[in-house]
DNA sequence: GTCTATAAATGGATAGAC
DNA sequence: GTCTATCCATTTATAGAC
């Protein structure tokens, strides 16, 4: 069961908990019950392993993007309950997705020293999700569900609320369901209040 | 000029750029033009140095808290321009303060493995500033400057906007004035729009 | 494709001279 | 309070057997 995929999964798990410099190749191999030379058969070096992980998350981002695109169909009107439900769903299914969440932890460390990691990080937690939010808010504006915002402020404030709830409660512990529930509760409250401010 | 304070400053600078595990005692001493044994005269070990840094930031948090308390005097009314100005000031003088900013970077890494660091981090970027925001919003509600929020949602959304602007633009590069200006511009737009929604 | 063994470098930490 | 010198553990990475 020790294929390349599994090695990457274990490496990601460890890297997300301490950052790549604090995790030795020995640590990874220990968790895999393998010797270092076995891992070096699959990956040129530690950086090569990191690069393979970056490619994995880039692929996942695109999968997620198209999933959002397909799910995207604004109804004839959006009630506050629907808005809250969709927002919590986004938090749970995207940011709190175990793999996404581990990448967020890992990349938030790596990006300080690795510009490639920084790019991936920005795409993962800003670029892609913000684009999706802006798309939805544009449509809601057009259909007069919400007030007209100067620029993209509503979409950005909306996403800031969700990302902040994630950072404050879940970051680094996506498997702690109590933490996830706290974040969901926070998003519920704040999105409900925010939506009632901008709703027409 | 190589007193304990200076050693801490240089260590903080390096730790904030890569995290403590990625910075060796040798690196720190190299930057100080000192031998390791000189540093070990002042600090028992690497962890002792880290602990001294945590104490420094805890002290700074309290200094900042009382500075906010003293500056705190809500006028007879708060115009949108005043609100924007205060918000940008908070971003620039607190989150973008070079020492605070370096601690944010460093602690965001350390907290994954060090629960003490996690506590300090939460106090620095959530507990203390949120308390201050909630205090101000409470007064503004009482004086009917803003609508009545269910719970503390307005204060929390307000702070989410500012923290998000910091994270998105400044994190890890507080000395990049272009990045700081971008964050300030973002806060200006979004706070202006948010305040106009809640203002009475 | 995984193992044993080992090389070469780096890291934390201390002893003892000045 | 800082320096030289050194110790020992850990780490990345490779060679060669199976």
Mass-distribution shape of chain A: elongated
SS strand fraction of chain A: under 5%
Alpha-carbon distance between the termini of chain A?
55 Å
- Rg measurement of chain A, Å: 19 Å
Strand elements of chain A, count: 0
Task: State the share of residues found in helices of chain A, binned by percent.
Answer: over 70%
Largest sheet of chain A: none
Poorly predicted regions of chain A: none
Oligomer: homodimer
H/E series of chain A, N to C?
HHHHHHHHH
Number of helices of chain A: 9
Alpha-beta classification of chain A:
mainly alpha
- Greatest chain-chain interface? A-B, 34 and 34 residues
The overall pLDDT average of chain A reads 96
**How many domains make up the coordinates of chain A?**
1
Q: What can you see in these coordinates?
A:
Chain A is mainly alpha-helical. Chain A has one domain (53-198). Chain A is built from 9 helices and no strands. Chain A has helices at residues 4-18, 25-32, 36-42, 46-71, 80-95, 98-110, 115-142, 153-169, 177-198. In chain A, helix 1 (4-18) crosses helix 2 (25-32) and helix 7 (115-142) packs across helix 8. The longest helix of chain A is centred in the middle third of the chain and has 28 residues, at 115-142. Chain A starts with a helix and ends with a helix. Chain A binds chain B through residues 17-19, 21-22, 105, 108-109, 111-113, 126, 149-151, 153-154, 156-157, 160-161, 163-164, 167-168, 172, 186, 189-190, 192-194, 197-198, and chain B through 17-19, 21-22, 105, 108-109, 111-113, 126, 149-151, 153-154, 156-157, 160-161, 163-164, 167-168, 172, 186, 189-190, 192-194, 197-198. Chain A binds a DNA duplex (18 and 18 nucleotides) through helix 3.
């Amino acid at each position: 069961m020790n294929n390349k995929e599994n090695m990457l999964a274990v490496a990601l798990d460890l890297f997300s908990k301490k950052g790549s410099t604090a995790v030795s190749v020995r640590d990874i191999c220990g968790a895999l019950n393998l010797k270092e030379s076995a891992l070096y058969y699959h990956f040129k070096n530690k950086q090569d392993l990191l690069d393979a992980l970056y490619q994995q998350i880039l692929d996942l981002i695109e999968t997620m993007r198209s999933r959002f695109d397909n799910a995207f169909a604004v109804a004839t009107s959006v009630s506050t309950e629907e808005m809250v439900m969709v927002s919590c769903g986004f938090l749970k299914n995207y940011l709190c997705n175990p793999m996404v969440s581990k990448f967020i932890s890992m990349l938030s460390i790596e990006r300080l020293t690795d510009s490639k990691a920084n790019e991936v990080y920005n795409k993962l937690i800003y670029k892609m999700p913000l684009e999706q939010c802006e798309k939805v808010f544009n449509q809601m504006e057009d259909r007069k569900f919400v007030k007209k915002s100067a620029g993209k402020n509503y979409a950005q404030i909306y996403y800031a609320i969700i990302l902040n709830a994630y950072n404050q409660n879940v970051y680094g512990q996506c498997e702690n369901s109590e933490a996830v529930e706290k974040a969901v509760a926070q998003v519920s409250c704040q999105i409900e209040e925010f939506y009632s401010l901008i709703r027409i």
